[in-house]
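> call design_seq(struct)
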């Protein structure tokens, strides 16, 4: 792992409290007596997403501690876990399509597209550690959406539009910071440019749908 990213796993640990607070009022607070709207499919999605987040945290920590063989072995699990993660979005999509607000299909559909794109690029460049790592970081940015997207309305009384655009601003700041950091250290930052571009497209489509 590049020396500048040796503590990446520790930074990704922030995904855990973000996910907890983001889903606290709509999911965790109901444990163990969940309401009827919390179906088995939601539990499965939460379980698989949690495994994926744990993998995002664990893998760079293994590299940091020179457990490269274990990193590769666990990485192969992603060939199973990632398709299951994407499939776990499908029941939610079906439910939204059948609801009175089908425009909200944008969120799981757009998130799935970004995850598939970034993961596919990461696997395509799996022998190029620099690009592989950066595209995996791209998949981590997707998880900021569902968490911040719930923290805004449930804890700060923000509207859907304000929350979503604040989320974009946070993601842009992270990516621009990473681009600046890589340029300063003469590293290849181009993957971040692609990731940033896809998020700009994401924001444009969101504002067209929900204007």
């Amino acid at each position: 792992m590049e020396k500048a990213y040796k503590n990446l796993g520790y930074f990704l640990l922030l995904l855990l409290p973000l996910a907890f607070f983001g889903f606290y009022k709509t999911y965790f607070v109901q444990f163990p007596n969940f309401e009827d709207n919390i179906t088995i499919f939601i539990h499965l999605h939460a379980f698989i997403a949690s495994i994926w987040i744990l993998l995002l945290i664990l893998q760079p920590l293994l590299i940091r501690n020179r457990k490269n063989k274990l990193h590769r072995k666990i990485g192969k699990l992603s060939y199973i876990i990632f398709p299951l993660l994407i499939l776990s979005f499908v029941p939610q999509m079906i439910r939204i399509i059948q609801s009175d607000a089908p425009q909200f299909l944008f969120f799981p559909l757009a998130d799935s597209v970004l995850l598939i794109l970034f993961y596919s690029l990461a696997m395509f460049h799996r022998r190029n550690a620099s690009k592989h790592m950066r595209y995996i970081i791209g998949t981590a940015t997707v998880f900021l959406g569902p968490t911040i997207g719930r923290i805004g309305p449930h804890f700060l009384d923000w509207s859907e539009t304000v929350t979503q655009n604040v989320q974009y601003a946070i993601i842009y700041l992270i990516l621009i910071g990473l681009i600046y950091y890589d340029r300063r250290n003469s590293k290849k930052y181009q993957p971040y440019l692609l990731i940033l571009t896809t998020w700009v497209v994401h924001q444009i489509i969101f504002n067209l749908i929900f204007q």
